[in-house]
Design brief:
The protein is mostly beta strands and 390 residues long. It has no helices and 28 strands. It has strands at residues 6-11, 20-25, 33-38, 44-49, 53-59, 66-73, 79-84, 92-97, 102-111, 117-127, 134-139, 147-152, 157-161, 173-177, 185-190, 199-204, 214-221, 233-238, 252-255, 264-269, 273-282, 291-301, 312-317, 323-328, 333-338, 344-350, 357-361, 376-380. The chain is globular, with a radius of gyration of 21 Å.
Length: 390
Amino acid sequence: MIGERVCVSSDSGQKPDDEVHSTAVDSQHLDLINDVTFDHSGRRMATCSSDQFVSIWQKDPDSGQWLKTHSFHAHSGSVWKVSWANPSFGQVIATCSFDRKACVFEEIHSGDQSGNGTTTWYKRYTFVECHAPVTDVKFGPKREGLLLALASVDGIVRVYEAMSPFKLNMWPSHSIIRAMKSCAISSISWSAPVSLPTLLAVAANGGKEKHERLGIFELCQDRSLTDNQVKDYKWRQLTNPVIDLKDVAVHEVAFAPSAGRCYHMLAVATNEIRIVKIEKSYGVDSFPTGIRYSFSSSSVVQSKGAFDQILIWRLSWNALGTILGASCGDGVIKLWKQNYLHHWVLITSLSPSERPLSYPIPTYGEKVCRNPDMRSSTDHRSKKQSFNAA
């Protein structure tokens, strides 16, 4: 849950009637927290805020409390999203901002071989090709290498690929998606199943047709090239996602983790939540992959009418893709789980605390801060909530 305060929820997942516990964390951000993202282990998280700062947190294994380990000034504008790379590429995060830039940061350990010493986050690269505010940033799946997708308000998705995990200061262009250029992109999400081609879902806040508000693209490689030639990647837009978007904006899309599935599950948030199941159907196709897809859709939360609509702002899956969490416009965080009848059942709701907190004033600067306690206090009110499930 995100405001100027972070509420982290956890579920043991051992029994159907297990309670979901939440822990309030004093974020010490001076403005609205726009995103909270956990690393692949769930023991670290990153928060970004409109105060232009990014904070890194570590969970204490003994007390279970979240401790801030680093805080640094990342951009010259509001920081919208933060994303962790796969841990096989090191401790790497990417951020995007209203300042039309995206940045890649890497954590470097300085000390002896016994493990003693300190760690510092260094800015490795800044993407400046976007001509509009960058609204989302996501690292691609591990099997595709170190890919990074940037989505901006001008409706263009730019994909970059690192030359090497050991050379994060070189990010040549991989590919560009321009099919949604007439829309303001709000969210992107990569698919995870290893038995299917990689998909990228793109959500937008506008567009006259439904395919302009939700686009699903398949990453394909030109197989006509020889091994000695440079790889040429193309994006094929999939049609008929069997979901009626009506005249509403799509705020968030989120692919579920694979967990051994042979199909994709995509959650779509508008004023309701829909789950799109994407399966492979075999057939002859003119495109090099030769793969067709079949779509089916189910409703998690359905709108009851024009006067009873609660917007869904954020979506997040648990590690197995069995529990879906959502941040609703009424300030409540809700968790759903699919039962044996394939119906989505509400298992719990979390309401934020209204108690005001005190926060320190940040010291702005380009250099990364090692000490998170470099600020004095002031009072702020909570503005908005959002969700990222552990």
